[in-house]
Amino acid sequence: MTVSALLLLLIPLLQAQGTPPATPLTLVSREGRRPVPTTIAGGQELIALDEVAALFQVTVREDTLAGGLTLTYRGRTVVISTDQPMASVAGRVVALPAAPRRSGGRWLVPVELLPRALGPIYGARIDLRRPSRLLIVGDLRVPRVTARVEAVGPPTRATIEISPAAPVTVSVETGRILLRIDADALDLGLPGGGAGLIDQIRAGDQPTTVAVVLESRAGTARAAPSEAGGVTRVAVEVAAPVSAEAAVPPPPSPAAPPPLFAPRPALQTIVIDPGHGGDDAGVRGAAGVQEKQIALDVARRLRALIETRLGIRVILTRDDDRAVSLDSRAALANNNKADLFLSLHLNAAPVATVAGVEVFHLRLDREGEAARRAAETETTSLPVLGGIRRTIDVIRWDLAQARHVDASAALAAMLEEELRRHLTMGARPRQEAPFRVLTGVNMPAALIEMAYLSNAEEERLAQSEPFQTAVAQGVYGAIVRFRAYLEAERQP
Amino acid sequence: MTRPRALQTAAAVLLVGAGAWAVSAGLDRLAGVRPPPDRPAAAPAAPPPGVPRITATLFYGSADGQTLVPVRREVTLADGVVPQGREILAAQLQPSPESHVSVIPEGTVLRAFYITDRGDAFVDLSAEVSARHPGGSLTELLTVYAIVNAVTANLPTLRRVQILIDGREADTLAGHVDLRRPLEADLSLVREER
Predict the structure, then answer these.
(1) Which domain holds residue A169?
(2) CATH of the domain at A31
(3) What is the DSSP pairing of strand A445-452 with strand A340-347?
(4) Residue A211: which CATH number?
(5) CB-based contact A93 B116, cutoff 8 Å
(6) What's the Cα-to-Cα distance from A214 to each of A12, A189, A222, rounded to whole Å?
(7) pLDDT tens digits for A33-63?
(8) What ipTM did this prediction achieve?
(9) A132 plus A148 within the same structural domain
């Protein structure tokens, strides 16, 4: 009886404490690295305030009178509301994704509190990099490292990008190439597996190394770093075994990077994004037609058309009925270095007579305009401690589209003109809007609302083969024109 | 349940109901509320007579469903920007007049309204605004900017509006408009009538 009563008391306590994340958060500072205990509850990643106090030497006090929690560091204070998702930092209100919650005598707060509220009073930058699970404290050099296989080959070619640029030392060893990157830590976004003669590209044994692991049948391998536009690119080439090759390639020489690639075509990869999916059906017409299905049908038709006629690589953000977050859609396009991003949707209006195709591109607000102006000055080189200069990439990751707004506007105009040749356009055929899926893509991008499912006639049409082909042909025509536009832009 | 017990319960329920009616009718009389005269049934409630009021611009869907239409309506006068903002938003979230279409999902209520010293307003709405949203870019733009424009058009010290859902930062209402940052007014969606 007593045992079961105890258990009953414990169960809600355990539930309130949440579950630990799959990968723990790691704090990186001048003093070294250490794990940060967090917990996932209610879809939020939370950290206990006593952990914050221990990690950052701040004083935590619960002010029951004012209904808030205060964090004090060297006389500067953050007040966290206990019932609203907000904190006040030196009189400025900062939004948080959730209000604090109490669990077993401890206060748990969203981890976003650290960069947004603690950072400003801490006197050192606190940067939360969610994908790589790093919490960076202080002005450290933590470049983002991404990799992709360009050609399966043989020879297999891959590119590893380090942004902002950092010096790289390459050593070709038996069975692998090791890259030693001169940085305090690495923000790794590496693919799971490899392709062709590359088995995998993964974190090295040391904290700031990356290993390109070769297949056992790989021949000569070489890697050459180069720096352009504030980004270091390491071009890796792995040849087939010597017996299979007529000529023996020269020995690896990191000092003299050989030109490995021909100039990249202006339009090499297109990401097509069928909207919604999984639990999120998008708009449902009165007759039951679902936006997620029509978007996927048209995306597949478009992929077939582009791949067969233009020979351009096409990636779909989803190729079946599954939920994909808006961030994952943008990340897929960015990680694949896509040259063009097209999101396909179907519209709804509060009145059933509204009809027609509409094309959207991103509208920047004041903040976005500031990001664009900053992007125009490309990268900035700043002096840091120790007399070194550090190259800073000035564009914010969540406003990556800012540097492409002009190209995206040109793309939207071409889409409007080409779609008009095949379909009836809406009352406002081309518009700018702050659409979430477009803000984070680092390439020209547009969103097409192909028809109104709230209109009975368009709902019927949307399922038809002629309609879907007409959309695909209109978009195809715009892509051909946009490729010419990009090539013209490249001419000096 | 035995028969006499059932009868007793029914009588008690009736008594409580009659009592509640008497209290509410009495309160109405005390507060001077009279049944609305010959106002159209679907018109949103205006402040009761005798209460100081101001004319605010609210935004509803146009009859053709394409744009937002500014409609001047009377709302209760409140002391200060935040209380006035609450009054304006409460009126904006009401069903639209009959001549217009509603762009706010039914059941949406204002949970909180607060402002920062940078001139950003936070409008915290109940989950219905997203859960009951029919989706589609146009409908979503109309919903978001009816709320944003209602704040910025009537409270000129506020330049940007961030919509929260159920007290939390939200990505979007239905998959399109970015709600992670405060939004500025969008008058391109607004068309004056006639």
Answers:
(1) 144-244
(2) 3.30.457.10
(3) parallel
(4) 2.60.40.3470
(5) yes
(6) 50, 19, 11
(7) 888 888 888 778 899 888 888 888 888 888 7
(8) 0.76
(9) no
